[in-house]
Design a protein that fits this description.
The protein has about 60 residues and is mainly α. The protein is built from 2 helices and no strands.
Length: about 60
Amino acid sequence: MVRAVQKLAFISFLMGFLILLEQVVTYGVWFEIDDIHHETFAVAFFALGVGIILGLISQNRKSPD
């Protein structure tokens, strides 16, 4: 179960990176505030990954077995 959750967090971070990579390949910049919709998706994926990691940490603290 823990491995599956870790993989989900990794996939979330990877998707955020790939969205920004597509942005730099297409437009030539990593983060452009004028074209905010790509950045919104990337930040959402990074936040999802962080939330998954924090949830996993808090779950492990509650039940160490």
